[in-house]
Amino acid sequence: ELDELAEAGRALNASRLDERRRAMALKMRALERTWAHGVFDRTAFAAWRATQGHPLERWALFCVLAERHGPGWQSWPSALHDPEGPAARQVAAEAPHRIAFHAWVQWCFELQLAAASAEVRRIADLPVGVDPGGFDAWDWQDQLAMRATIGVPADRFSTEGQDWGTPPFIPHRLRAAGYRPFIETIRAQLRHAGGLRIDHVLGLFRLWWIPRGTARGAYVRYPTNELLEIVALESHLAGALVIGEDLGTVPSGVRRELSRRRMLSTRLALFERLPPKRYPRLALAGVTTHDLPTVAGIMTGSDLDDQAASGVRPDADGLAVLRARLLAAARVAEDAGVDDVVLGLHAALAASPSALVSATLEDALRVERRPNMPGTLGAQRPNWSIPLPVPVEDL
Q1: What is the pTM of this model?
Q2: 302: buried, middle or exposed (CB in 10 Å: 19+, 13-18, 0-12)?
Q3: For 272-277, what is the mean pLDDT?
Q4: Which residues is 266 bridged to in the sheet?
Q5: Residue among 82, 91, 87, 191 nearest 140 (CA)
Q6: What is the largest CA-CA distance in the chain?
Q7: DSSP code of residue 198
């Protein structure tokens, strides 16, 4: 019964962009058929569900509400804005089978994640914020500043600054909650993981808050020592290493503090003035990230066209600086081709003393468009939806 769905899924590879909504619809139909046939270990599922407790049940309820009322809980009937309110409890009582289905989907994820992590040191990625219309924001309303968003002020590589559209935690309310949201997030990410990359680790020190409806922001400081101690404890319990994405405008003392706690720094050829052979041991070394131009995008100059098409003011001077750093790190001539630059960069990184080295499939395949253009949303650019030029099976 799943053959037709699988074939429809493979057909999506021909799409110009990743068809996430269509893929999701196909997967849900396949999961619903599997659930209806009941060909799984019901005893094992029931035992696992019991151990997950309240967070899993509330998540499953959120899924049911989203199916009924659409995405973005702020657009739901106001009575459903309260996760503990009588209206939400009534839905939970009326839809036990659908709630059980969504809990079972999470169990499927759990089994697959455990299997995928068994033979490799899988490193999870912790984003800097949550979707304001998603489950986390619905569940943690009391700890989030829903009338503000976070981002970064203008700098050399983002001349107009960035607004990431995600609400920040309110420091004193997070502490009053015993840091429950932060602890739950860290533990969830470290399930079966051998490591954790913390995006914008500077956010454990301070975050750039932007009040909604304004273009200006300010830094808000966080209880750094307490947050870092939580990360240290949870990573120790999980037996996992931690990488801090400490790029951008780094306040004085941040990298020293991270090094003191033996958290890996992030060193990118695009940002470093030193050659890879002089990178520190406690670091994840690489060329770029999903938020920065690819090697091909820099060397051909096409990233400037992408910036303009996305509504971002093209920064030719900034791209020239990045190009010069790539050539220096790769130790190639000014007129070197993309292949020579890519190979030279990764040879230099492989010889660096850094504990970990990352490479991107975009650079391996000479892709010119970066996966994400920071500061752009919605119709401006199809972020996170630009597929690789070949299916994963053909890489």
Answers
A1: 0.91
A2: middle
A3: 95
A4: 284
A5: 82
A6: 69
A7: E
Q: What count of other Cβ atoms lies within 10 Å of the Cβ of residue 211?
A: 13
Give yes or no for a contact between 363 and 294, defined as CB atoms under 8 angstroms apart: yes
Average pLDDT, stretch 155-160?
70
Name every residue whose Cβ is closer than 8 Å to that of residue 73 and which is 6 or more positions away in sequence: 62, 65, 66, 80, 81, 133, 134, 137, 138
Q: pLDDT exceeding 90 applies to what percent of the chain? A: 88
CA 187 to chain centre: 16
Classify 166 as helix, strand or coil: coil
* pLDDT score for 157: 62
Task: Write out the two tokens for 165.
Answer: 């559209």
Summarised one tens digit per residue, pLDDT across range 100-116 is: 999 999 999 999 999 99
**Type of residue numbered 391:** P
Q: 3-state DSSP call for residue 135?
A: helix
Which phi and psi (to 5°) does residue 179 adopt?
60, 25
Q: What percent of the chain has pLDDT over 70?
A: 99
CB 336 within 8 A of CB 255: no
Helices (H), 210-358: 224-238, 254-260, 295-300, 302-309, 316-330, 338-350
User: Would you tell me the crossing angle of helices 20-37 and 3-11 to the nearest 10 degrees?
Assistant: 170
DSSP state of 148: E
Element (H or E) spanning 220, and its range? strand 218-221
Q: Which two tokens stand for residue 267?
A: 């060193």
State how beta strands 148-152 and 206-211 pair: antiparallel
Return the structure tokens found at 190. Answer: 């470290």
Give pairs for 316-322: CB < 8 Å, separation 24+: 318/156, 318/157, 318/159, 319/293, 321/156, 322/270, 322/292, 322/293, 322/298
Residue 25 DSSP SS3: helix
Phi first, then psi: give them for residue 131, nearest 5 degrees.
-65, 125
CA dihedral 80, 82, 84, 86 (to 10 degrees): -50
Query: Three-state DSSP class for 242?
Result: strand
pLDDT at 156 over 80: no
Helix (H, G, I), strand (E, B) or coil at 33: helix
At residue 389's C-alpha, the angle toward residues 115 and 116, to 5°, is: 5
Q: What phi and psi values does residue 270 have, to the nearest 5 degrees?
A: -65, -25
- 75 contact partners, CB below 8 Å, separation of at least 6: 69, 133
Query: How many angstroms separate the CA atoms of 271 and 274, rounded?
Result: 9
Distance of CA 348 to the CA centre of its chain: 27
